[in-house]
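Below is how a single chain appears once it has passed through the pipeline. First comes the sequence as given, then the structure the pipeline wrote out for it. We keep one example in the README because the format questions we get most often are answered faster by looking than by reading.
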Amino acid sequence: MIKSLHVASVCLALAFTTAIAAADEPVVPATTNTAVIPAPHIGREKDVQHKWERFSGKHFDIVFDGDSIMNRWETTGREVWNQRYAGIAADFGIEGDRVENVLWRLDHGQVEGVNPKVIVLMIGTNNSGKNSADEIAEGIKKLVADYEERCPQAHIILMAIFPRGEKPVDGGRRKVAAVNDRIKVLGDDPRITFIDLGGKLVEPDETISRDMMPDFVHPTAQGYQFWADAIQPVIEKYAPSK
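Resulting structure:
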């Protein structure tokens, strides 16, 4: 297994093959909370390897981590990314990732040698169809604790999961809202700032406009601008620009 990421890409590929062959979606009892059991994201091995080759083992002041919403900082949110984060931030977000996949990436050395000052974390929306709100919240709490241990000098910005679904009565919307209610208490930790951007992403009647989220999950460039503005005071406090 990878214990240091100062390695060539061929070693990373070999590590993926070995780890996935050994894990291959571990068989667990039906009552077990899968969100707390580290598991590789089968089918996304090349994406993870590419991120590790770009960022792991190198210092970055800021780490962004999560799923496709986080991954798209450098595409949909490219303009603000280039203005504020290019060169000082690593984006480890992976399309379709669930909480357990991020746990797996951390277990396999993703942030070794990065030594960030700030971590921006949002994950859990892809667990909403499989796990209960309690299970997702438990997984997120484990992930935050894992990051605190691995990056003891970093301040964590924990984002509430973005609202999803066109209407407030949609099941996915209610599920992520319930998760957010359970994880917001993590903001009581002085090392964590909890930020809920939901109010900026929905209309006054609490529906989601396609102008803000065309698929009712992923924000447009305007959403990434709102996001950047919301986290900037925390970034300036813990990773001030020089």
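The beta strands are 62-66, 89-91, 118-122, 155-159, 192-195.

See the next section for the split statistics.
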